[in-house]
Automatic annotation (TrEMBL):
Subcellular location field: Cell membrane
Organism of provenance: Superficieibacter electus
All residue ranges annotated as the Major facilitator superfamily (MFS) profile domain in the record: 14-429
Keywords from the named record: Cell membrane, Membrane, Transmembrane, Transmembrane helix
Main location class: membrane
Residues that span the membrane, as ranges: 12-32, 52-72, 79-98, 172-192, 244-264, 276-305, 317-334, 340-362, 374-397, 403-424
Name of the featured protein: MFS transporter
Sequence similarity: Belongs to the major facilitator superfamily. Phthalate permease family.
Entry membrane topology: Multi-pass membrane protein
PROSITE patterns per record: MFS (PS50850)
PANTHER family documented for this protein: FI19708P1-RELATED, SOLUTE CARRIER FAMILY 17
Keyword Ligase appears in the UniProt entry: no
Family matches, as SUPFAM superfamilies: MFS general substrate transporter
Length: 448
């Protein structure tokens, strides 16, 4: 640990790593959506086939959230996240060669499934690190940084990946994204550390984090030995009314995200008749708006908290107002003007970013003893949308030949989310787990 009278700011360096790691995460997720318009045509995939291919990631991502959370609590975010990044990037790279397999569709589905399995600990790991490295009054901003990575992935890299397709082929989208993740995964393992193990942090910064509500000790052997978690306690966490409302809200937000990460380029290509290069450029505009919305929403929430407003008001105001505004996406069904469509999509994605504080709420309310597991449970419920959204949209397009009802489905998620936060969530407060029963003592008492 560094000795200095002036407080260090190592937490911001860790935030840079968290942001870039999440960026790599979502670039790999976006590869299929960018390649889909050309790839599906070359490989003769129907809309329903693409719906299943898009959803493969979601199935694994949802199923492995809780196991991933358990691994995080046992081995820590640094090791689990770093190794996971390298593994999912290998699976991304291999998707560029699916045409070499006897069953192309099955190979694609399996590789996307394995990629989703490896990515399962990613967002819970970031949430866990934000609690380790940041006090409460900075956590909204920290969360907004790593949660805006999807918008950067779409805004910056969609045009780049579209250019790669136009110059080379769709295969190189997967090759380039996979190599990027493997390299950064190695850098993560070399440079990222927990607060108590980082050589450059000083006691003043540790005290600042701890006194502000952060938990630098999270993951230490001493803290892990302080609390044993039972399945009854996990059941309590899953059945708590506040958390159920937060889970529903996250499902709604994730539904909007997955439309933009799966079908949006195809929507522009097929429904609006744009070329693949124009798709890449146009798809970047809503993503940039989402990035701006995410930063403003996180900063507003922290500002309200610093001004003395309650945690409930400070977090709910951006979430509820943003989800309500995201319903504006439905207007796209009633215009043929490309500029108007892009404006509406940008407004909806800005609103989605503005309301994207679900992970911050989770960090504020989850039991401190099981933040990794809590993140896994939260992301399990939220990412049911990763399965349903691409499938529902795929079958709607297959049945109607149009995106109209698909857009209505996405827009309706904002209304459901608002209802959940206003009428189910209630007051935001940190849950506490009752001590797990001491079975040894119980048996001794019975014996005596």
């Amino acid at each position: 640990m560094k000795n200095s009278d002036k407080k260090t700011h190592i937490r911001y360096l860790m935030l840079v790593f968290m942001g870039v790691a999440m960026l790599v995460n979502f670039i790999d997720r976006a590869t299929l959506s960018v390649a889909a318009p050309v790839m599906s045509k070359e490989l003769n995939f129907s809309a329903a086939d693409m719906g299943w291919a898009f959803s493969a990631f979601g199935w694994a991502y949802m199923l492995f959230q809780i196991p991933g959370g358990i691994l995080l609590d046992k081995f820590g975010s640094r090791l689990v996240y770093g190794l996971a990044m390298i593994v999912w990037s290998i699976f991304t790279f291999l998707q560029g060669g699916v045409y070499l397999f006897p069953s192309v569709f099955m190979a694609l589905f399996i590789l996307r499934f394995l990629m989703g399995m490896a990515e399962a600990p990613a967002t819970p790991a970031s949430s866990r690190l934000s609690v380790q490295w940041f006090p409460d009054r900075e956590r909204g901003f920290a969360t907004s940084i790593y949660q805006t990575a999807p918008y950067v992935a779409l805004g910056v890299f969609t045009p780049v990946l579209s250019w790669v397709i136009s110059i080379y082929s769709w295969h190189y989208v997967f090759y380039s994204a996979g190599l990027l993740g493997i390299v950064f995964g190695a850098f993560w393992l070399m440079f990222v550390r927990d607060p108590l193990k980082h050589k450059s942090i000083n006691q003043q910064e540790l005290d600042y984090i701890r006194e502000g509500g952060g938990i630098p000790e999270l993951g230490s052997a001493q803290r892990q030995s302080q609390q044993k978690v039972s399945w009854a306690q996990i059941k309590t966490m899953c059945s708590n009314r506040m958390m159920i409302g937060v889970y529903i809200g996250q499902f709604c937000l994730t539904s909007i995200t997955w439309f933009f990460f799966t079908w949006f380029p195809t929507y522009l290509y097929q429904e609006k008749g744009l070329s693949i290069i124009k798709v890449g450029l146009v798809a970047a505009i809503p993503a940039i708006a989402g990035f701006v919305g995410g930063i403003i929403g996180g900063m507003l929430s922290d500002y309200l908290l610093r001004k003395g407003y309650s945690l409930t008001f400070s977090r709910k105001l951006p979430i509820v107002s943003g989800m309500l505004l995201s319903c504006s996406i439905i207007v796209a069904n009633y215009t043929q003007s490309i500029p108007v469509v892009i404006f509406v999509m940008s407004l909806a994605f800005f609103a989605k970013g503005f309301s994207n504080l679900g992970w911050c709420v989770l960090s504020d309310t989850s039991p401190k003893e099981v933040l990794g597991l809590a993140g896994g449970i939260f992301n399990t419920f939220g990412n049911v949308a990763g399965i349903l959204t691409p499938l529902v949209i795929g079958f709607i397009i297959q049945a109607t030949g149009s995106f109209d009802w698909a857009i209505i489905y996405v827009g309706s998620m904002g209304i459901v989310g608002v209802i959940s936060y206003l009428f189910i969530v209630g007051k935001l407060q940190r849950l506490t787990l009752s001590p797990a029963p001491d079975l040894t003592a119980s048996k001794t008492a019975v014996h005596n």
